[in-house]
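re the bet — no i am not wrong, look at it urself. input seq straight from the record:
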Amino acid sequence: LFPGVRQAQWLTKTKLVEGLPPAVQGIMDNPAHGLQELEERAKRAVSHARLWDTAEVAPRREQYCPVLFENLIHICRLMSGKYPSLSKRMLARNCRIAATWERESILLQVRGLSGILMNSMTPIPPVASKEEILATKEHVLETFYPIAPTIDLQEVNVYKELNHTGQCFGDGYPYSHPHTLFFLESANVRTDRFRPEQLRAKMLMFAFGNALAKAKALHGNDPKVLEQPVVVQSIGTDGQLFQFMVFQLNTTDLVSNDGIKNLVWIDSDQSLYEKAQCVPEVKKRVVTKPAGIFGFQPDTFKKFLALYLHGTV
């Protein structure tokens, strides 16, 4: 998606809200959850991924990005001792999403690998009130006239309109609710990675696709405003910079620009740490920056953990 999130908003009939929703912010701000107690572990997780887990002078992004993700997920799982319902989660990898919808007179599909998908036994409650949902009627979606909003989308022949949240899940799968999608942009060459804006657009499209497929599985294919909106989160990272997103599907009536819109909250470009000093910096035979230092940003870690806890606490 060349225009990024703006184009994804039109395709998914979505209103953007900057920052994280109050439900997630409240988890971060509540000292009873003890998020600050895990900060030291998070620092060690960064050190392990960026400084220790390699025999090379400096690890490559394709190595440290997945290692950092696994370290952070491990820290999140430690909270299950305090909140047992967190154990009712499952990480699924290499699962394919398919969702089909009509926008104006265009039939659209989002299909493909949907990152690493964390499923839950219970859905995330709606994050926007009924009043906030009704207020989206007044929101005017941005157009790209005279450019078509589908200008850079791939055209294919559709022989079957598919809607599913993962071909690897069979009927009766207990972890049936999509909770959070994780996208790791771990390519070592910059041009092989999504730029942050394009990554956020990808995150929005796949969060929407998972939510839409789930809504159709629950409520059928008829376009309608949902009495119980579907919430799906997404986190994207290149191993240093994080993108956080909470998407709420309020309606499957997506053909026209009128009426209720969907909602997305995005917190962009949050750095977990400043540059990791893998080798010492020496000037005039004097070490000005020793190896092993980095500027840790605890708020970014707390956001990651708060999104993990969201729907449980």
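see?? The two ends are 35 Å apart (CA to CA). told u. also Helices lie at 5-12, 22-29, 39-52, 61-77, 130-135, 196-219, 298-309. so pay up
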